[in-house]
Design a protein that fits this description.
The chain has 3 helices and 11 strands. It has helices spanning 2-36, 43-75, 101-105, and strands at residues 120-126, 130-131, 138-145, 151-154, 160-166, 169-173, 185-188, 193-199, 221-229, 232-233, 237-241.
Length: 242
């Protein structure tokens, strides 16, 4: 009887073991079914992946083309582009503030001195000794350099004056109605002369160009002409009006 009781005890203990084995095999079967049922990526994901790959290929191709072009330019000996703001050299070889060697070695011409009026002569003459009733005298002034070197003198209308007198009566002056004299610098060589002519209209003038209707007398009256250059006056030339 004792042996029978032991066998029952053994039978009860083996039953839970079988149940445990069955319980262990069921979770394994569930895990296998989950892996086989995993979701596949959607078509939108596939399109995005293709776009990324295609863009990467385009970037690689562009880099390759740019590198080939740069190498070709270098081999062709092309000029390097200048950086922005790089100063450009000018074509003037002489720096500012300096003079070139040719200019430094070239002697400057000495200035011509102003004429000494003590060595100058001023002469007055008319083109004829006597004039008819309708003839107009031509008054001539001649300036001569009596020195031994060339000199400059102002022979403009600002310095010249033609004066006609009849005894002590002042008949005419070219300065009376002159609206504005001009300067004219001339270089006169030694012994040479400058000549200026003035046609007189047989009219009278007053200082300040005042109005006057009287005319010089005719009928064989004599007049004198004096030429003046600055403060240098000529001897008087005599002529007759008929």
């Amino acid at each position: 009887m004792a042996n029978k009781g032991k066998q029952k005890t053994t039978a009860r203990g083996s039953a839970p073991a079988g149940g445990a084995a069955r319980a262990t095999s069921r979770p394994a079967a569930r895990t296998g079914s989950t892996s086989t049922k995993r979701r596949r990526p959607s078509p939108a994901v596939y399109r995005r992946r293709r776009l990324v790959v295609f863009g990467g290929l385009l970037l690689v191709i562009a880099l390759l083309v740019g590198g080939v072009a740069a190498i070709s330019s270098a081999l062709a000996g092309g000029e390097e582009p200048q950086a922005i703001g790089t100063p450009v050299a000018t074509s003037d070889p002489t720096p500012r503030g300096t003079t070139s060697a040719a200019a430094a070695t070239t002697p400057s011409a000495s200035p011509t001195p102003v004429c000494d009026f003590n060595l100058m002569t001023v002469a007055a003459k008319t083109d004829k000794p006597a004039y008819g009733a309708e003839e107009k005298p031509m008054l001539t002034m001649t300036i001569t350099n009596g020195g031994s070197a060339p000199c400059e003198v102002n022979v403009g209308t600002s310095q010249m004056e033609y004066v006609i007198m009849s005894g002590s009566d002042r008949i005419f002056s070219s300065k009376d109605c002159q609206t504005g004299g001009v300067d004219l610098i001339k270089t006169i060589q030694p012994g040479k002369s400058e000549t200026a002519n003035f046609p007189w209209q047989r009219n009278r003038t007053l200082e300040g160009c005042g109005a006057i209707t009287a005319k010089p007398g005719a009928g064989g009256a004599y007049y004198t002409f004096e030429a003046r250059l600055g403060n240098k006056a000529s001897p008087k030339a005599v002529f007759q009006l008929n």
